[in-house]
Amino acid sequence: MTGGALGAALDLSDTIVAHATAPGRGALAVIRLSGPRAHAIARAALDRWPSVARAVTVCVVRDAAGARVDQAVVIRYDAPASFTGEDAVEIVTHGGLVVPTTVVAALVSRGARPAAPGEFTRRAVLNGKLDILQAEAAGDLVSANSRAAQQVALRQLDGGLSRRVLALRDQLIGLEALIAYDIDFPEEDDGPIAPTCIADAADTLVVALERLLATARAGELVREGALVVLAGAPNVGKSSLFNALLGQNRAIVTDIPGTTRDAIEAVIDTPTVPLRLVDTAGLRRAADPVERIGVEVSESYLSRAAVVLACADSPASVSALGAELRGKTCAPVILVRTKSDLCPAAPEELAAQQLHIAAVASVAASAETGDGLETLVAVTTRIVAGDALELGTDAPLLTHERHRYGVSRALEEVGEFRERWRQADVPAPVAAVHLREAVRALEDLVGAVDVEEILDEVFRRFCVGK
To answer: Which of the four pLDDT bands, split at 50, 70 and 90, describes residue 322?
Structure first.
């Protein structure tokens, strides 16, 4: 393979070692060792060695001078039946900072090299245990901050997206074969393959690629969460509502207007789409420089919001809020009549107020009693997800910009081929070049070709030990 500097610097003949668990106070830590000398290095540091692979053995770990470092559990893996496809060892030590570090040092002193970020998973890719899409899913699973992201990552790790991409690649290769046959037998009347058959096959591919590309929005929502901004005048109950939705006190709640001077962000984990809830400073004309900065931060969030929860506790505050929001956001607005236990609003009154500020929905809610909170989350989720919600998390989703770019590239090339074929303005071998480029774009996605630059980009964001 040829390519990036990182790829050139990582030697597969090295045996690598790293913490597989986060450093810090904890009951246990896991040390991973992988490479051609993994077994020899581990045996030199341990007083007992598992007689068979995947058997758990209690052992004592010693440093290079023979001093006892820890009593641990060791598990041996024989190539190719390991995560990386190489000989590998996992040592479960006591937790904390000192014990795992001294165990790693004992292994390094005997010839192991500290692993680079993502190097274990990278080796799994290079040894054919995973493709690049599955490797990205492993990273997504580790960094998932919602149940939806977790489920999508698990399905990608199981190969759901890989199978879909490879199926499209096979369809493209089948279309290439039809073109090749047409080129090889030009003397046939109207060609051995009817031109309309090839055009129809191209149409089918375009539709399939468009459907896959359409999942990018759902993938982005699942991975990043949707920005939901609470906006309103000071002291209308935004922070109380924020805390009630989260089920904990994240924002300071007082009767003094203007308590929240900066935005506070937290994630609500719904079963479908995570909501990035933001409590902002009250919208108002602020004379104090610090308050003015807080209001500017609020307006910045409003300009980027996926949905705005417009909070008001009375008809007067609804009217004032409508004026404050005007021109500050293009996102759908949900009117939230806060303090519904103290200031109840009749349905017809709520509908009129919703119309007044051009909101797409309205909900009466009480942070004190919890009334309306479940409805508010359901309405927000439905609006923020839109059509993307109908896809669900069971279907393969494009969850990274790299995925979207690769499928877009393939779609563009197939579209160009279809146009050239219909126009018949270039020879068939020239038109077929677009199909070959579409195949290459999909192969780049799964790593079916040698692309070190892609590997460098994928694993740059991984943690050490993964």
So the answer is: confident
CA atoms of 33 and 83, how far apart (whole Å) = 11
Please tell me the least confidently modeled range out of 156-165, 240-249, 301-310.
Answer: 240-249
For residues 312 and 379, membership in a common domain is answered with: yes
Does residue 462 fall inside a structural domain? no
Cα 196 versus chain centre, distance: 41
Which residues form the domain of 276?
222-391
Say if pTM beats, i.e. exceeds, 0.85.
no
Q: Which amino acid is at 337?
A: R
The reply to whether 127 and 202 lie within a common domain is: no
- Helix 160-184, helix 132-143: angle, nearest 10: 160
352 has a pLDDT exceeding 90 = no
Residues 362 and 235 in one domain: yes
pLDDT digits (tens, 9 = 90+) for 110-120: 999 999 999 99
Domains identified in the chain, total number: 3
- Considering the domain architecture, whether residues 386 and 240 belong to the same structural domain is answered as yes
